[in-house]
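Bench notes, afternoon.
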Amino acid sequence: MGSPVIQSGDYLLELDTGFDAFSFRLDDPLRGQLDNTEFTLGPSTQYADITPYTQNINIRRGRRRPLDQFAAGTMTFILDDQIAGGILSPYDESSPYYDPLNEQAGLAPMRAVRLSREGELLFVGVVINYDYQFNLAQDNKVTVTCSDAFYLLAQTVLPETVVSEELSSARLITILDLPQVNYPALTRNIATGTQTLGAGVDYDIPNGLNTLQYVGAIQAAERGRIFIDREGYLTFQPRIGVTTSGPVISFADDDPLLAKYQNLQTVFDSSNVVNYAAVQRAGAPAPEVAEDLSSQATYFIQAENINDSLLSTDGAALELAEYLLDGSPAPRFTALTTNFALLTNPERDAAATVDIGQTIQVQKTLIGTPSSLTEELSIEGIEHNITVFNGHTITYFTAPTDLVYLLILGDPEFGRMDSNNVLS
């Protein structure tokens, strides 16, 4: 199943009809015929393949800068109902997606949706809006807007909750397990946090607090990543530091052995400078402050302030303030765009499945000295644009990362004790 996209691969876009649309049904003139090879004994999948009717797909996930909060990932796509023969209309009771038993349109808001390429998921979520535009020329279009599971968290509120002192990852699990949230345990990927969150009257959760807002407060204290990955798993990654994970794909502008990129965005300005950071934990009389005075003398004061942090101690608040300091701007690769027409099939497979938190390598040829620059970059956000006739374009939003390697005894390169090789 699925449909080919030019120079990109086979894609499958599926919408949950909300009922078992493709199983044998007694007394149904279409689905009730004996020896029917299309409508067989169920239960069968509730997903309908709508790829042949799709004109373009756009996906946005993650964030653009490391200091930004993670928002809900989104996917929008446009369907051509003229190609579909009118069966996408919510009013068409003869549509194979219409549920006659419940008198409901099958393709409707809050249905599950998923997109895959060559069997690998790129997005999993739910339909938020199903906008049907009727045109006099009968060239009717359907614009579908979808969101990942962060949307569902944003629709729930927390009860008044007395919390215990626990790691950030444990607090996240506590929240997800509450009956008012009831987030599926099978779609979680939660690593162990590094920061302890506080307890007591100042940390207890008031009744009616938005769930996603509180999840954002956990992420702000940990300073890791909390997001929905490409397969639909709620993912928690601890505080960002050095990584032992090598690049999942390497790009270059002039190396035929590496993947090619279409555009590389470099930023060299003061927008990322933080030379004054103040973090005040919940209930603390004053914030803990970290400053870079030499940076302030050059770039003026550029501040990052966090109030009511969930961190348990002033020492942890001061540590976070120091962590946030970034006093000297430097040229940074902030976004890389590639089109699948530039890539080999193995490179397309690797590029399509890159996810937030992974590392890529980028090599840029320079005029002057040095003659080239190579950087390891963490992925903070991803944008896909897929059209049937123009192919698949991906933009990765990146941040600098420090890559270290596990020590390997006896290895001539990785067996040396230095800052690039670590025990664990």
